[in-house]
Specification:
The complex is a heterodimer. Chain A is α/β, with parallel strands linked by helices. In chain A, 39% of the residues lie in helices and 9% in strands. In chain A, helix 4 crosses helix 6. The N and C termini of chain A lie far apart (51 Å). By secondary structure, chain B is α+β, with helices and mostly antiparallel strands. Chain B has a five-stranded mixed beta sheet, covered by helices on one side. The chains are: A alpha/beta, B alpha+beta. The interface between A and B is large, with 44 and 49 residues.
Chain lengths: 420, 215
């Protein structure tokens, strides 16, 4: 193969794929059989990190950036005047295998622009995965993008070779989708998701009876939304994320701050900054929903349509519900401990374990590693010295912000900038 | 006055007896932590291990999860550090294919983690010959498609910490270039965050990372 040409294609098609945030390589357990290549223990490895601090775990590329669609938010839309390229199936296989052998990557993340039609594109993606699994005896991680509108038969085949399948919903609201991606229909996204969900359930139940049933997409499915492209509220985003978690058993929903790539009246101007902090707050909310036992309407509802940017969502919730505090660290149950600002799930389990031996006081809590600068106002422990609650939420918030150094403080300087 | 040194020779029979004794007294994960703490080579860790082991034999029924005991705490902390280093090396090893079809990587880990890595790489690269060489401790692990062996080579030295380009297999340099191309293309410039980048890949590892040393 000609390496110069491959290199050119790689730079075009990796550049076009980089806006997909998902890079996890965990969850796809696949043991090396018959002295093949690769062994996936189910634990992901980040082999490198880009200069923007994101993990590089997979070879993340498009098969081609030719596309028949014209979605405003996408770099590869057909009306965009950019260099186009396409990989041959064998070229992707060779790249994956050779990168994997050198321990550069955990596997392949293959997506594609849509050429001809959905099924034709999906067939090519599946062909790559199939070749890797069957001809190269490759047991590394494979993440395939499901092309919206793909037929059920192809989705079934895809899951037999891939560890994870994903369709990016991109725009959280149906109206936003109509505005920015007039060619795409909401149902086209839903269809492959539904199929994957049902297949996973079916294969799991068959596996219980017949142990050598092949596994279907062991790392499940995920999706991604662009944040800040259509003026949707945080409530819209999180309600729709919750819908996908519940309805399609998503492993992950990713939130990607909109990066201005084009001038289009329907989109924020090209000088808009990437909403990195908002993205961070959304991920925090996502974690609260999945691991901390919060339900979405506690955090976001008609009164609170957007998350506060200057404090984290759990603290924000606590300030709105001060009557539930203070909580006694030595008596409260697990679900209440998890709701205290400044205490994460690791600290919760440490507290539960430690309080079996002795009653905990402030020094114990500090040693466990909880963020006392926030937590101290919401708890009591084995000490007479605790915060007596006689402040309003606003005063408490100011007190906490004054006494803590947030890494996002730079966004909230009270001093107005002279040149902005 | 204080520099009288005493040489102690390893007595394999006795060592095995002690290790068997330990095995019958503590759980598997605690045995692993003990081994990891030993591999850390941190100054003074031997004394901690010694008092810890003495305690195991003295109080065989203790649960050993009381972290207010300073030896238990220390060992679990050190084991965690070694575990992290192991995981980083699993990520940062970069193999280079040589003319005689062996994939070779050189590393300089903070702790002596090679013994912990064998399993991972043997399972993963079962169909290729590979060698991982620890430059700091001057030994390596070689896999010959059937089993792994501990090897020491004169080939590597302080002035020669890697494989020369003349010894590369045919397409080795091309794939290294492709990897650099890929690494540079996935970066999103408008989200640059150097602090986070260096936090994830501390500078001491850069020497052996292809993508951080443009060819």
């Amino acid at each position: 193969m000609s390496f110069d040409r491959i290199s050119e294609k790689l730079s075009i098609l990796a550049d076009a794929a980089k806006y997909d945030v998902s890079c996890s390589s965990s969850g796809g357990k696949r043991a090396n059989s018959q002295k093949g290549l690769g062994n996936n223990t189910g634990m992901g490895i980040c082999h490198s990190y880009t200069e923007d601090g994101r993990c590089v775990s997979l070879l993340k590329i498009l098969l081609t950036n030719h596309c028949i669609f014209d979605c405003a938010y996408c770099v590869t839309r057909k009306s965009n005047d950019i260099k186009r390229a396409a990989f041959k199936i064998q070229e992707v296989v060779d790249l994956t295998i050779n990168f994997y052998r050198r321990n550069y990557i955990e596997g392949l993340f293959l997506s594609s622009g849509i050429f001809k039609n959905s099924d034709y594109t999906m067939e090519r993606l599946i062909a790559v995965a199939k070749k890797l699994r069957l001809e190269e005896n490759f047991n590394g991680y494979i993440h395939l993008k499901s092309i919206p509108g793909t037929s059920d038969e192809l989705m079934r085949e895809a899951g037999l070779y891939a560890d994870r399948l994903s369709v990016n919903i991109e725009i959280p609201t149906v109206s936003g989708l109509k505005l920015l991606a007039p060619d795409k229909k909401h149902e086209d996204f839903i269809k492959p998701m539904k199929k994957v969900k049902n297949e996973i359930i079916q294969y799991r139940s068959e596996h219980k009876i017949i142990k050598n049933t092949p596994r279907y997409a062991p790392a499940g499915q995920s999706t991604q939304m662009i944040i800040g492209a259509t003026g949707e509220s945080d409530r819209d985003i999180m309600y729709s994320a919750t819908y996908y978690y519940k309805k399609f058993n998503m492993r992950r929903v990713y939130y990607s701050g909109y990066i201005p790539i084009t001038t289009d009246d329907r989109l924020p101007s090209i000088k808009t900054e990437v909403p990195i902090l908002r993205e961070n707050r959304l991920y925090q909310t996502d974690w609260l929903l999945r691991f901390y036992g919060f339900s979405v309407n506690e955090l976001l509802n008609d009164q609170h349509k957007n998350l506060e940017l200057d404090i984290d969502p759990k603290l924000s919730w606590a300030l709105r519900n001060l009557e539930m505090f203070p909580i006694d660290i030595n008596k409260a149950d697990k679900s209440m401990l998890a709701r205290i600002p400044g205490i994460g799930m690791q600290s919760v389990s440490k507290i539960l374990q430690a309080r079996r031996f002795r009653k905990l006081d402030w020094t114990h809590l500090k040693a466990i590693g909880i963020a006392l600068n926030r937590a101290q106002y919401f708890i009591t422990c084995n000490s007479n010295n605790f915060f007596h609650q006689d402040r309003t939420p606003l005063k408490l918030k100011n007190l906490i912000m004054k006494n803590s150094k947030s890494k996002s403080a730079k966004y909230f300087s009270n001093q107005l900038s002279l040149f902005s | 006055m204080f520099i009288i040194s005493e040489t102690i020779y390893t007595d394999k029979v006795k060592a095995e007896r002690v290790w068997n004794g330990i095995k019958s007294k503590i759980s598997l994960s605690q045995q692993k932590n003990l081994f990891k703490a030993f591999l850390s080579e941190i100054k003074g860790v031997e004394n901690t291990l010694f008092t810890y082991i003495k305690n195991i034999f003295k109080k065989p029924n203790a649960t050993n999860i009381d972290y207010s005991n300073k030896d238990i705490l220390k060992i679990s902390q050190v084991a965690k550090m070694v575990g992290r280093e192991k995981h980083r090396i699993e990520a940062f090893v970069r193999f280079k294919q040589t003319k005689d079809d062996i994939f070779i990587a050189t590393i300089e880990p903070d702790f002596n983690v090679l013994p912990l890595l064998t399993h991972h790489f043997k399972d993963r690269y079962a169909d290729q010959k590979w060698l991982i060489y620890d430059m700091k401790r001057a030994y390596g692990i070689y896999y010959n498609l059937y089993k792994t062996d501990i090897v020491t080579l004169d080939f590597f030295s302080k002035s020669n910490t890697g494989i020369n380009q003349d010894d590369y297999a045919n397409n080795e340099l091309d794939f290294q270039n492709l990897w650099c191309t890929y690494f540079n293309s996935v970066n999103i410039k408008s989200r640059k965050n150097t602090k986070l980048h260096v936090q994830h890949i501390p500078k001491r590892y850069w020497k052996y990372l292809i993508e951080k040393n443009d060819i």
